[in-house]
């Protein structure tokens, strides 16, 4: 039974992540097909069906979230602007963006961040977290989870912070009931 409860918390985070990208798409008046076409023009091969599946499941890398924002010409927090210039890979851009956000809390190292994430029911080992953040291979859900426990500025472009806190509180209750 505990596995099902944890799965429901994961599903809640995935739902929020799905909502975040759909908000960006809606504000830019972009359909799944249009986003797939725009991504293809940027050299990222995605079909309309694959884009829709990723978005609906909410299970995609943060680098895909950034690719989608760029391709759809969606609005994003002004301090993210350096992320969208240059020729780095999208994984590298994702890594730089989250590391810049985390640098605003210099008292937090990856181990302490894992502790904060655990408080909201997100279990990840510090070595895994560090590797994923450095490689830019982390899930978009992890970005929003970090944004919740570290209070990243600009998340309100995509989600109501109260919704993030509600899911975090639910995860905390589940985690403490283990």
Characterize the structure shown.
With 178 residues, this protein is mainly alpha-helical. The protein has one domain. It has helices at residues 2-27, 32-41, 48-57, 62-71, 90-103, 110-119, 126-135, 140-150, 161-176.
The level of helicity is: 55-70%
Average the pLDDT over all residues and give the rounded result. Answer: 92
As a percent range, the share of strand residues is: under 5%
Oligomer: single chain
Number of helices: 9
Report, as a whole number of angstroms, the end-to-end distance: 11 Å
The string of secondary-structure elements, in order, is: HHHHHHHHH
Largest sheet: none
Low-confidence stretches: 1-6
Q: How many distinct beta strands? A: 0
Total individual domains: 1
- Envelope shape: globular
Structural class: mainly alpha
Radius of gyration: 16 Å
Protein name: DUF6471 domain-containing protein
Pfam family, one: DUF6471
Domain DUF6471: 13-73, 90-152
InterPro entries: DUF6471 (IPR045526)
Compact description:
It contains nine helices and no strands. The chain has 178 residues and is an all-alpha fold.
Question: Which terms would index this structure?
Answer:
66% helix, disordered N terminus, 178 residues, mainly alpha
Write the layout of secondary structure elements.
Blueprint: H1 2-27, H2 32-41, H3 48-57, H4 62-71, H5 90-103, H6 110-119, H7 126-135, H8 140-150, H9 161-176
Helix pairs in contact: 1-3, 1-8, 1-9, 2-3, 4-5, 4-8, 5-7, 6-7, 8-9
């Amino acid at each position: 039974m505990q596995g099902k409860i944890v799965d429901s918390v994961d599903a809640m985070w995935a739902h929020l992540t799905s909502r975040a990208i759909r908000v960006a798409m809606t504000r830019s008046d972009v359909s799944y097909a249009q986003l797939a076409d725009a991504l293809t023009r940027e050299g990222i091969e995605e079909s309309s069906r694959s884009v829709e599946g990723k978005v609906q499941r909410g299970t995609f890398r943060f680098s895909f979230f950034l690719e989608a924002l760029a391709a759809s010409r969606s609005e994003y927090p002004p301090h993210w602007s350096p992320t969208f210039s240059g020729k780095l890979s999208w994984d590298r851009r994702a890594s730089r963006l989250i590391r810049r956000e985390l640098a605003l809390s210099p008292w937090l190292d990856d181990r302490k961040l894992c502790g904060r994430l655990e408080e909201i029911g997100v279990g990840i080992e510090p070595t895994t977290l560090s590797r994923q953040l450095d490689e830019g291979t982390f899930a978009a859900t992890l970005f929003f989870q970090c944004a919740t426990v570290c209070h990243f500025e600009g998340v309100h472009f995509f989600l109501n912070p109260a919704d993030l806190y509600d899911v975090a509180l639910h995860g905390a209750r589940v985690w403490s009931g283990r």
